[in-house]
Automatic annotation (TrEMBL), chains A, B:
The keyword Oxidoreductase applies. This is Prephenate dehydrogenase. Gene3D superfamilies: 3.30.70.260, 6-phosphogluconate dehydrogenase C-terminal like domain, NAD(P)-binding Rossmann-like Domain. The keyword NAD applies. Keywords: Amino-acid biosynthesis, Aromatic amino acid biosynthesis, NAD, Oxidoreductase, Tyrosine biosynthesis. It comes from Cryobacterium algoricola. GO terms for molecular function: prephenate dehydrogenase (NAD+) activity.
Length: 355, 355
């Protein structure tokens, strides 16, 4: 177990780190330039305010990429015995800036938890945000992650999986699996801005999935894309080459070979998506069942009361309300061992189970 | 209620239509070129085999787009009293081909249920597949949907929402909300085919969402994209223009104006995705408030009971449950006119409102 951890920046990631460490009984010291965010995070149970004389063993800087190097440098100076890490989505740029600032990088080791949500801020924080997620430790020439065992402990304590990677490999990897998908999604969503509402009413899950991350914070993403421009650009250029071929094939869909070329691109997409590990990103710990509920007041409360009376704990609940439909769908997540009995008992009580 | 319905093609859509109609007690006659698929669909409860002398009132052709017109023409000829519809994802191409074949289009009215799953085949069929989903009826000059009341009944019986649209508007709309997202997703997934496994291990929900539809059946999509090539191509060209600007801005991310251009694209993406109706947390018809709830059984039910007692209908509810935190967050969507009173009344009853 690690000693006191100082978390600088109490947004989504900082607050989640605080909540996760506090749940393991670890002392967490919180700091934030915004007194409002700081007091929310403290009230939320993510840690305590900083005190004079604090001697943190580890400092985790959870601030936007643009100011990461500046804050890391300040923390390295203020706490000369501490190891300092950060959680920014790019790793080469902050390291280069730290070196340019003449910071003591022998105590800095960059890291990046691959976890996030669309919503930001302390109230979006969750102790289990990092559970089962990769957490890259991007050691540079001046330090190895074995020198910084506190980071190892941090990652294990939060239930994440440590992945060692050079800063270069990290930045290339996230360009592919995170930054380019963000651009692709954004550009798709851009096409919706002046579309007729009647067209958008036909949207299904496919469009929603493709454009979901386009709702992310533009300010943060300007920083990320600016700091990782070269690898992102390289992949986008390759993407555009494929797109050019697609557009060309559609110009004369009946021309010889046009169908084959489209089919090859589609099959290539199949092959690419099949390489992604773990088919579903859904929470593996729970299974869900969907119950149809009439669109009248009190129905959900009645359902939850009956589930509670059966002694089953609802881990997560999501209500789908389709415009125009008489029915809502309540998707209820429960522990796997409860689902069969719950399904039977609810059906016996007249609830319609959709699947 | 409609009379006997003949469903031709017992894949996902045909079987789901059969199951949904059977659940309403409507007689369903099934036909399929594949005896295997047909017998699976019959065993599954989607309907009965065709008999000599069947007099269906309505025929629903659920075959791949490439052969839709051929089968519709055959059905129009075989059953001279029946109204014939189809469910293909494109509407202009089949109509043009039917006219070219000299078919009696005064009894044909194209339609398209906006529903589907990644999995195909009769065993993927679900009686509730169309529940709350839009179902476009694309009347042509020779027929209005009021002439074809059986189609109205079909759509209502399956719980879908009837949307009237010209074949042209339909094809342009689905190019935007379905066909272009398919291409965008496919091209992103293509980039994964030769990526290092270590990079793919960092993939999160964002990449999974963007590439989910890339797993769709290439054969079906070659047909769809070929049949709707012009509108799809037009949108892809506009998409490529934006992509070009993005790539240019990333070539010199520190150049004057580069950041602003990237920020504008990202904000445009925000604006586009916010226009999607019925999206969780973004539904413009409702506003949401977040209530903190203790992590004890029965709290949500108590909250919903009190909201119900206030006469307020919960349109949508999402429960955030963070194992490490002492609190859950219930995000409740209500009609805008109810939110002020509800916030006050809940606060007066001791609930903590988070925002």
């Amino acid at each position: 177990m690690i000693g006191p951890v100082r978390v600088v920046g109490t947004g989504l990631l900082g607050t989640s780190i605080g909540l996760g460490l506090r749940a393991r009984g670890i002392e967490v010291i919180l700091a934030d330039a915004s007194p409002t965010n700081l007091s929310i995070a403290i009230d939320y149970g993510a840690g305590r305010a900083a005190l004079t004389g604090d001697r943190p063993q580890l400092i985790v800087v959870c601030v936007p990429p643009d100011v990461t190097a500046e804050i890391v440098a300040r923390e390295l100076e203020s706490f000369p015995d501490a190891i300092v890490t950060d959680v920014a989505s790019v790793k080469l740029a902050p390291l280069a800036e730290l070196r340019a600032r003449g910071a003591d990088v022998s105590r800095y080791i960059g890291s990046h938890p691959l976890a996030g949500r669309e919503r930001g801020g302390p109230l979006a924080g969750r102790a289990d945000l990092f559970l089962g997620r990769p957490w890259v430790v991007a050691a540079h020439d001046g330090i190895s992650y074995q020198q910084a065992t506190a980071i190892d402990d941090l990652i294990l304590d939060l239930g994440a999986t440590l992945v060692e990677m050079s800063p270069e490999d990290h930045d290339r990897s996230v360009a592919l699996v995170s930054h380019v998908p963000q651009v692709v999604s954004t550009l798709m969503a851009r096409r919706l801005t002046d579309a007729p509402a009647a067209s958008l009413n036909l949207a299904g899950q496919g469009l929603r999935d493709v454009t979901r991350v386009a709702a992310s914070d533009p300010e943060l993403w300007v920083q990320i894309l600016g700091a990782n421009a070269a690898p992102v650009r390289e992949i986008l250029v390759a993407y555009r080459d494929d797109l050019d071929r697609f557009i060309e094939a559609l110009a004369e869909p009946a021309a010889p070979g046009a169908r084959r070329r489209v089919a090859e691109e589609l099959a290539g997409g199949n092959a690419g998506v099949s390489r992604l590990p773990g088919k579903h990103g859904h929470d593996r710990r729970f299974v869900s069942l969907t119950v149809m509920v009439d669109d009248t007041p009190g129905q959900i409360a009645r359902l939850l009361n009956e589930i509670g009376a059966l002694g089953v704990n609802v881990e997560d609940l999501r209500l789908e309300h389709s415009p125009g439909a008489e029915l809502g769908l309540a998707e209820i997540s429960v522990l796997p061992e409860a689902v069969t009995r719950l399904t039977e008992e609810l059906a016996a009580r007249g609830w319609r189970i959709a699947g």
